[in-house]
Amino acid sequence: MHDFLAEIPEKLECIQLQAGLHLDAIRVHKQRDSVLVSIFVVLERIVNELTQTWRGTTISPGTY
Fold first, then answer.
1. Nearest to residue 51, comparing CAs of 40, 43, 62?
2. Quick one: DSSP state of residue 61?
3. 12-64, pLDDT tens digit by residue?
4. Cα(62)–Cα(36) distance, rounded to whole angstroms?
5. pTM higher than 0.85, yes or no?
6. What is the CA radius of gyration of the chain?
7. C-alpha to C-alpha distance for 37 and 31, rounded to whole angstroms
8. How far apart are the C-alpha atoms of 10 and 13, rounded to whole Å?
9. How many other C-beta atoms are found inside a 10 Å radius of the C-beta of residue 19?
10. CA distances from 42 to 12, 47, 48, 49 (A)
11. What span, in angstroms and rounded, lies between the C-alpha atoms of 34 and 41?
């Protein structure tokens, strides 16, 4: 019984460590989502710029 009670602080420390890692993982996932959104916003702007440039060079007025 004494050995079992002696293991409790170790097990609690392990649980606290895992809980801390879980909270850090949640923060990392939120930051990852923000980075992905930013990347797609930049890609969308690049595509829009390229599309406008492509339209301007290939379609001249009166050629519809």
1. 43
2. T
3. 888 877 777 677 777 887 888 889 999 999 999 999 988 887 777 655 555 54
4. 41
5. no
6. 28
7. 10
8. 5
9. 10
10. 45, 9, 10, 11
11. 11
CA distances from 40 to 34, 37, 46, 55, 56 (A): 10, 5, 10, 22, 24
How many residues are present in the chain? 64
* Distance, CA of 11 to CA of 40 (rounded, Å): 43
Tell me how far CA of residue 2 lies from CA of 5, 6, 8, 11, in angstroms.
5, 6, 10, 15
Residue 59, classified by CB atoms within 10 Å of its CB into exposed (0-12), middle (13-18) or buried (19+), is: exposed
CA distance 48 to 27: 32
